[in-house]
């Protein structure tokens, strides 16, 4: 089975909108900036806990989770 690559552009925009930059968000999420960068570049995956915490930190509506975390790159 091939690895799915997700489009995190909307998530990146939300991070900048709500936190100002990736560094501040990674600190709030409790992971390194490098680790977050790897996740946003599809090198590693977000854990369920990281997705849950991100939704809370960024104020993402439950009905919009798919748009931020599960949009597949075309």
Q: Helices and strands in order, then pairings?
A:
Blueprint: H1 9-19, H2 22-29, H3 33-40, H4 48-58, H5 65-69
Helix pairs in contact: 2-3
Give the strand tally: 0
Distance between the termini: 17 Å
From N to C, what is the helix and strand string? HHHHH
Percent range of helical residues: 55-70%
Molecular shape: globular
Low-confidence stretches: none
What number is the mean pLDDT? Answer: 96
Which radius of gyration do the C-alpha atoms yield? 12 Å
Report the sheet-strand fraction.
under 5%
Biggest sheet character: none
Number of helical stretches of at least 4 residues: 5
- Protein structure class: mainly alpha
Provide keyphrases for this structure.
74 residues; mainly alpha
Tell me what the structure shows.
With 74 residues, this protein is mostly helical. The chain is globular. The protein has helices at 9-19, 22-29, 33-40, 48-58, 65-69.
Compose a concise summary of this entry:
The chain has 74 residues and is mostly helical.
